[in-house]
Design goal:
By secondary structure, the protein is an alpha+beta fold. It contains ten helices and eight strands. Helices cover about 40% and strands about 25% of the residues. Strands 1, 2, 3, 4, 5, 6, 7 and 8 form an eight-stranded mixed sheet that branches.
């Protein structure tokens, strides 16, 4: 008797189904496919939350922290220029006092006094900010000077463009060959500006504008008020504006500051006699004499004897 091979018997007795063949083929393809590396998982296979976490972890491991800037900007003679670098793309030549902080991509300079010239490589995404009490300068790829003095903060552009935002709220962009000055916004700052203008023989209008701004400042103190009136007294005396000068002398005395009271009393006595007559000068002459300063007004007393 002939015996049939078992596999033939199995094939003859087994019913073929297309669904089973398709499943079989799919399993074979999956088994033969190369196993992907854990780092080769395609982004679409990740959920949105998992993808965000994976990206954050990747950059946390591979992106270096910004390099801190270390720059000692110490005092130097105005005739002696020092140089320093803030990373690869910012150089500064300075004569004055300031401090640096931030990173090589985002340096921050607090400039106190003197002149500093900054050179910034364009197109490198450098966010340099130079701050003074009067305003802030932001770089847009340029070479520029920042000079801080009693007159305020002056910015001069040698190449490129910078944006300047002053403490008074004004903002401007300046380009090559242009300059802009941020004025002081405090009473003491305006007093310092007025005195600097006096030393530079500035016009009466400039001096009066500076002192008026100081008197209108929110942080005005009694001693600063007195000194601002003293500057205005000098301005009006120099221009022979006697009534206005007398008003400023009286305003100084009303502050009750003692620093220059004898000087203000002498001015008030002389001006009141000139503008309003000897009777108006008596109160100031009497105070000077009581303080032992009769000699300083002896000539005026001779013209205006006590009643």
């Amino acid at each position: 008797m002939d015996h049939e091979h078992p596999l033939k018997t199995f094939a003859r007795e087994t019913t073929f189904h297309e669904e089973e063949r398709a499943r079989y083929d799919r399993l074979i393809r999956q088994a033969r496919a190369p196993k992907p590396s854990p780092w080769a998982i395609p982004w679409p296979a990740l959920s949105l939350g998992l993808a965000g976490a994976a990206i954050a972890a990747f950059f946390a491991l591979r992106t270096p922290e910004p390099t801190p800037v270390s720059l000692a900007m110490s005092a130097s003679a105005e005739s002696t220029a020092l140089t320093a670098t803030l990373g690869e793309h910012v150089a500064v030549e300075y004569s004055g006092v300031g401090q640096a902080s931030g990173t090589s991509q985002a340096p921050r300079i607090d400039w106190e006094s003197g002149v500093a010239t900054f050179s910034v490589t364009p197109g490198e995404g450098i966010d340099l900010r130079v701050r003074t009490p009067e305003g802030e300068v932001r770089v847009l790829g340029t070479i520029f000077d920042v000079e801080r003095s009693a007159l305020g903060t002056q910015v001069r552009v040698k190449r490129g463009k910078v944006g300047v935002t002053c403490e008074d709220g004004s903002a401007v962009e300046i380009t090559q060959g242009q300059s802009h000055t941020c004025l002081p916004t405090t009473a003491a700052g305006q007093l310092g500006r007025a005195r600097a203008l006096q030393s530079a023989s500035a016009s009466a209008d400039e001096l009066l504008q500076a002192t008026a701004a100081g008197l209108a400042a929110a942080d005005l103190s009694a001693d600063t008020r007195a000194e601002l009136h003293a500057v205005r007294l000098d301005v009006f005396t120099s221009s022979a504006s006697w009534p206005q000068a007398l008003e400023e002398a009286r305003a100084y005395l009303n502050t009750k500051q003692e620093a220059r009271r004898p000087w203000a009393l002498q001015r008030a006595a002389q001006l009141s006699a000139l503008v309003e007559g000897c009777s108006a000068a008596q109160v100031y002459l009497a105070e000077l004499e009581a303080a032992g300063s009769a000699e300083s007004v002896a000539e005026l007393r001779a013209r205006c004897p006590s009643p």
